[in-house]
Amino acid sequence: MAGRPVAVQGEVSATAGQKPFEGADSGKWTAGTVNETASDTLKVDGSFVLHQASCAFTFTGKAGQTPVSGSSTVELTPTTDKLFADGTGVLLDGDAAGDAYGNTLKASSAGRLHVS
To answer: What is the pTM of this model?
Structure first.
């Protein structure tokens, strides 16, 4: 049975949600930079595999005519405890996390580990 591909640097994407922040009736979420924590020893196709990722999302909107702002941080951690690098789990293709507003992080990868 083949395992899921391993996520490497640059393979986690952030998607902004649609549900307004508490108290707002309209507005927009914006994704910040995806911060990745990578292995310092294990690579797939020349890129280090990822242990986790996080992204801070910011909201700007209104409640009637009153400005509303907010923020939410989403953290993506491994969903399996079967594969490790540097003693820590690694992200696999399809691993995803989200918050109550629909902000999400998702790992998408085709890179497989090879034994040589």
So the answer is: 0.90
